[in-house]
């Protein structure tokens, strides 16, 4: 029975945290507790209680319910009482501390205000809160509407149970705010002829932003997502913003669509358990030109474009630490690498911007938007890898594309776990990947990154495994309007590579290798074989 319960838990984790409800985590915990109660003297009793407490923590992370926190504490207390000689006893205090700290992290947040701004091709609704908030949301039909449940929140009295109707007939025709049980605030946007929408968060102060794009405002190509940037372009003049205060008549608190939506910021789970393959895929559907003897070049090369600005994206952050091993967090390690890389590139005269400069959460969509707003020439996302098999090790680099490799698919599930996009976004996302016009340059850049990383760390780590360049549909790359690459610089779940990542010398070598890759890529744009014309 214990093996079956363990298999059930692993199956849930393989789905990704965002797809598992608190009810499912609780059910899995109950299975373990049943084993501990039914077979108290078995060799699995202490392990079952430990696993059950861990799943109570997962449920608490999912919903922030005090019931789950109390249940986790109770299970650990029973473990200490009934199994005093268990090897798990020394770890109980650590898990209790986790439950306590998570309780502090889920303190009540206040919804302070809502604004509505009308731009040339979209309408923006901004929800201001006084701290980071967990939320779930979904688009519903008949009538067309978006709802967002802000968990563990209270509302300023001026906003409570309000409805705002707008006479301009635009895509957000009404905003409703109401309260639900367990300190949940529901905000509903009633829509009219919306083509697509984008949800992301901004910091200092914290805001949840929803951009709704008019159907008539879609780009010329119907296959591209209409809105990519979180801020207005220079030629867009908003009408507003319109700050929403108390309105009438008050809305009735709805209960009929308390559907489980998408959680924006789950804890990342490690689900990869297959050894990566070393292969480089060709772009799906690409057809080589016929009747040409001379080499062909991308449009960027034909136009003589140059690299002078780079956005560096340190993966994860905030409540999403990424992979973890022995007190090391992926989010901390890659931020350190990013700072080192920034220092090196700045000395070379390259303009550098980071998507985050501290341990904060930045949504996947916002990371690409930061690069777009900065008019960056390159986007480089830095990560540390993870696998259930501790023997898996090496370095691999990705550019945007589809893949049928189950290992890469699993990695994409892990890296995309925090996206707020729903199933209704699937067609647009697929089309964005298929039509991404920077694939060729991204592949060139990825090849340089991979080559220099392997050679760069080779002096310290001569047995490093080259896992190659691969394609994957990473959300952080989809919205980027420039060549973009995601690199996994080593496996934090491998003891040897975790030891290397823990040292400043290894991280400095990684930063140097990434800098060399960027400078080499810049050089490839300057010189073309068989070229007789230069563009200045």
Please tag this protein with its features:
536 residues, alpha+beta, Serine Threonine Protein Phosphatase 5, Tetratricopeptide repeat, Immunoglobulin-like, Aminopeptidase, flat, disordered C terminus, AMIN_dom, N-acetylmuramoyl_amidase_3, hydrolase
By CATH, the architecture of the largest domain is named 3-Layer(aba) Sandwich
Q: Name the CATH superfamily classification of the largest domain.
A: Zn-dependent exopeptidases
- Alpha plus pi helix count: 14
Number of strands: 20
User: Given the helix and strand composition, which structural class is it?
Assistant: alpha+beta
What is the overall silhouette? flat
In the CATH hierarchy, the third-tier topology of the largest domain is known as Aminopeptidase
Whole-angstrom Rg: 25 Å
- For the residues shown, what is the average pLDDT? 73
CATH top level assignment of the largest domain? Alpha Beta
């Amino acid at each position: 029975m214990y093996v079956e319960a363990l298999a059930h838990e692993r199956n849930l984790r393989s789905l990704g945290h965002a797809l598992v409800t608190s009810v499912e985590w609780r059910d899995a915990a109950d299975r373990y507790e049943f084993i501990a109660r039914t077979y108290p003297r078995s060799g699995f009793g202490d392990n079952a209680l430990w696993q059950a407490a861990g799943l109570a923590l997962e449920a608490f992370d999912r919903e922030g319910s005090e019931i789950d926190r109390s249940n986790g504490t109770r299970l650990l207390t029973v473990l200490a009482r009934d199994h005093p000689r268990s090897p798990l006893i020394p770890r109980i205090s650590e898990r209790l501390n986790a439950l306590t700290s998570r309780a502090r992290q889920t303190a009540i947040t206040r919804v302070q205000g809502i604004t509505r701004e009308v731009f040339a091709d979209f309408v923006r609704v901004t929800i201001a809160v006084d701290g980071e908030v967990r939320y779930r949301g979904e688009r519903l039909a008949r009538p067309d509407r978006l709802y967002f449940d802000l968990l563990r929140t209270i509302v300023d009295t001026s906003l409570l149970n309000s409805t705002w109707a707008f006479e301009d007939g635009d895509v957000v025709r009404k905003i409703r705010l109401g309260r639900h049980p367990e300190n949940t605030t529901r905000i509903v946007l009633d829509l009219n002829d919306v083509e697509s929408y984008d949800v992301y968060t901004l910091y200092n102060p914290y805001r949840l932003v929803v951009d709704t794009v008019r159907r008539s405002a879609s780009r010329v190509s119907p296959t591209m997502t209409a809105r990519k940037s979180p801020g207005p372009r220079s030629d867009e003049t908003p009408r507003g913003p319109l700050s929403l205060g108390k309105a009438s008549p008050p809305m009735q608190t709805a209960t009929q669509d308390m559907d489980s939506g998408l959680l924006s910021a789950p804890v990342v789970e490690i689900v990869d358990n297959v050894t990566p393959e070393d292969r480089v895929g060709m772009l799906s559907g690409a057809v080589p030109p016929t009747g040409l003897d001379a080499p062909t070049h991308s449009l960027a090369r034909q136009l003589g474009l140059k690299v002078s600005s780079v956005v560096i994206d340190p993966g994860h952050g905030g409540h999403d630490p990424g992979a973890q091993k022995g007190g090391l967090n992926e989010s901390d390690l890659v931020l350190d690498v990013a700072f080192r890389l920034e220092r090196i590139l700045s000395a070379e005269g390259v303009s550098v911007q980071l998507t985050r400069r501290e341990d904060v959460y930045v949504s996947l969509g916002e990371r690409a938007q930061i690069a777009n707003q900065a008019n960056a020439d390159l986007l480089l996302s830095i990560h540390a890898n993870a696998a259930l098999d501790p023997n898996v090790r090496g370095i691999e680099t990705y550019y945007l594309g589809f893949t049928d490799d189950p290992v890469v698919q699993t990695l994409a599930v892990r890296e995309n776990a925090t996206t707020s996009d729903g199933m209704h976004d699937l067609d647009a996302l697929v089309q964005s990947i298929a039509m991404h016009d920077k694939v060729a340059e991204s592949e060139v850049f990825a090849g340089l990154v991979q080559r220099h990383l392997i050679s760069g760390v080779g002096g310290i780590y001569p047995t490093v495994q080259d896992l190659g360049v691969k394609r994957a549909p990473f959300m952080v790359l989809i919205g980027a309007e420039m060549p973009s690459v995601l690199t996994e610089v080593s496996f934090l779940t491998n003891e040897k590579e975790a030891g290397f990542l823990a040292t400043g010398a290894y991280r400095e070598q990684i930063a140097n290798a990434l800098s060399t890759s960027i400078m080499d890529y810049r050089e490839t744009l300057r010189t073309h074989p068989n070229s007789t014309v230069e563009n200045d």
